[in-house]
């Protein structure tokens, strides 16, 4: 049996319902304050907003009873008039609790206003439908708000990532820091920038789903992430856990390491993934982004590079690709500490590398004992973190020596 199968509620009953609407709304608010302590703690204007929504819902309910063939008009109309601050203050669970309380008050007080038993049955069924529809309406409103908020967050996130990548004015401005803070990012946290290709989508899930998984992985690692897909590249800003190794440029790659980036890197698409050096905070993250992007451009020159690879490990390739920051970084990482330790280490390294890595030949060139060469090469390794006997490290060290020699040559005079 439907409401339309019986008949419409009489005009006299409708008038009684209209006159009782104010009292019913007030009784609902009293019940909410009694049964939900948090509701009583709301500011007066927000409780008034709930009263307004309740009265609007009742008015729509009475109008529908007059024309039972029409669609129940309870959805967005009742909730659109709610103050914006109220919608932000109440969670969906809290809203559903209030709807349940109001429905119970209506179940108790509306049917006795019927003129006869037939109307009583109509009102009982109508109140049940009222509660169901308004609960669905609340869920729809919150879902739309969440979708809108998600779209806004995505735009803000893209703006922050783009601002870090561009590094306008040599850093990130206060507006971008404020946007990041609104997204729950700690602007004072140390940060790295990771770049690679976006998730391909066909491997496991849609790209947006994969990026959501990346955020979950980061949360489990005690990190926060901001992501931005810029054409064929994915840029990820990831915080360094407090007390981690953020003070240097070592990059954890062992999946057993609690600070490992491996779960985050796994969500990138195919191809190289490059990790920039740690930056002290978001305002300085443009340097990490610059190095990471330069490393990504140069990565094809090292096909056997690990995944992920630190931008600092791609300095030779970056120098060849024309990155202006690579040569000074090589000099700083290799030549500067060896020069500070004494000229013998630098001369020994050059003789060893230029002699093809032959220990005895190097010793003869320098007129020293081979053990002296061994000792000096160990000191080179201690100071630079690179072993001249390793082919990859030897490439880095040799490129650094070339960069140091170029840096020592004064630029040509104008017109020369």
Automatic annotation (TrEMBL):
Superkingdom of this protein's organism: Bacteria
Q: Where are the transmembrane segments?
A: none
Query: Can you give the residue ranges of the CdaR GGDEF-like domain?
Result: 170-298
Pfam families under this entry? GGDEF_2, HTH_30
Q: Which residues form a coiled coil?
A: none
What positions does the domain PucR C-terminal helix-turn-helix occupy? 345-403
Q: Which PANTHER family match?
A: CARBOHYDRATE DIACID REGULATOR, PUCR FAMILY TRANSCRIPTIONAL REGULATOR
Q: Which family does it belong to?
A: Belongs to the CdaR family.
Protein name as it appears in the record: Helix-turn-helix domain-containing protein
- Native organism taxonomy: Bacteria, Bacillati, Actinomycetota, Actinomycetes, Pseudonocardiales
